[in-house]
Amino acid sequence: MRAQNQSEDVTPRQWQTIKLVENPYWRYGLVILAIAYLFYSVGTLDINWHRMSTGLTRANNMFSRMVPPDFSRWELLVKGILESLQMAFAASFFGMILAIPLGLCGASNLVPRPIYLVARAIIVLSRTFHEIIIAIFFVKIFGFGPLAGVLTLVVASTSFISKMLAEDIENMPPGQLEAVRATGASFPKLLVYCISPQALPRYLGVSIYRLDANIRHSTVVGIVGAGGIGQVLAATFSRYDYDFSLAILMIIVALVFLGEVFSNWVRSGLR
Amino acid sequence: MTLDEHARKYPEVWQRFNPRQTLIRYVWYLSIVAVAAWSVSNLDIPWIYFLDAHVQAMDLATRMWPPDLDFVDKLYDPLIETIHIATLGTVVTILIAFPVAFLAARNTTFNAATWFIGRLILVTSRSVNTVVWGLLFVAIFGPGPLAGIWAIAFRSIGFMGKLVAEAIEEIDQGAVEAIEATGASRLQVLWIGILPQVLPVIYGTTIYRWDINIRESTVLGFVGAGGIGIQLYSSINLFAWQEVSLMLTSVFAVVLVSEFISAAVRQRIS
Fold first, then answer.
1. Residues 74-133 of B with CB under 8 A from A
2. Start-end of CATH 1.10.3720.10 domains in chain A
3. ipTM greater than 0.95
4. pTM score, two decimals?
């Protein structure tokens, strides 16, 4: 950005890169504001610098206790991972199904205004809260265990997929819609012959992406008691079983990586 | 061609897929349903809990209403702290994600080994959830916003690094060659040839990630990593649901505003 400052003789004829903010007063003003904010925020945060300086030795201590990873309790590990995977699969499936009606209702070119507003409000509301907050409510209502985790992920998946679906439908060219409507097609026929062929590839792609995201999230909802490998992981941290923690983390990284590879493979096949 | 064959080849009703494609599609659908059914049946879900779910939900709702408005004074500082954690975490992210993105992009990395290291950092960072990073950093730095900032940063590096690396791989190579032809050093090529091309992506993803980070930082307190989550978690554990509902309302407002800011800024940039 400020590449021209590097050379010694700044002549007016020198080439300048395009600036994000055209007005120099605004540009430098924003930079000064940003620096001021940095000082202000670091100052107000209750940061214990002494604690931070001892952090390095603590981190060192922790890592030495983490290595080598302890895979001896692999039965617990496999059980947790399997539960997380099953939670992710079940949640993605129900999310996919629930997202269809919600997504259709959230498309302004298909449904009357009031329905559209209600659907959008539901989507926004369920997207705003972090999965863990939603998980706490489900744990309260349905008790500890994977059910609460599955329902949490269902809520998150539904809102995500339906938002994408609704936007996709809204961005469709109006020509096809009008053409199918002009043949006298009923609303269900409109869905089958006009909306679904156009929306299906992206809908499936988004769903597969969501499966990949659900695998990632299923590893964490357990921290508040909603089942899966996260519950095991949180327990190992509170018992300072760091070598087992590392084993779990390594498996999670591998699992997420495989999920990503799978998701990319399916999505490239869909295109 | 007999009449039968002709009818099969040119059916009267138009079909989008031929029988083979249809079969493959149905096999896919069937396997998706089978996997879902296997998962649900293996989770031993206590279906009986659904019977009184509405009672429990109503119970929760009545306990949450009305929000405890006296609590507002205690809310201000943790909320500000939450925003600070998200913002400072994003600042730290930019500083780390940028070099890593150059390692992870095929056309700017040094060799296969550095490319692999870059990718490994990105995958690891993304696979581990912010809250799990929070657990880790609370163990290192002790409870407080500092652990939160590092947790946010470590999770965001993978997100931003991946998007920036993809942007670097898609740049116009012509500009880079032109700069190289002037005899520029490697650093100058980076600074003048590549950076300006990916800057819009960097600004866009930074703002986008900041908005996600606001949401994430609201729960970091559950593991002791600062912000409103600490208050929220203790209120939940004390069953002080009227405080919880007030806090959730404030979180909702903050997240909504940050999303609005993020969308507005991204629109201005693009």
1. 80-81, 84-85, 87-88, 91, 123-124, 126-129, 131-132
2. 74-270
3. no
4. 0.83
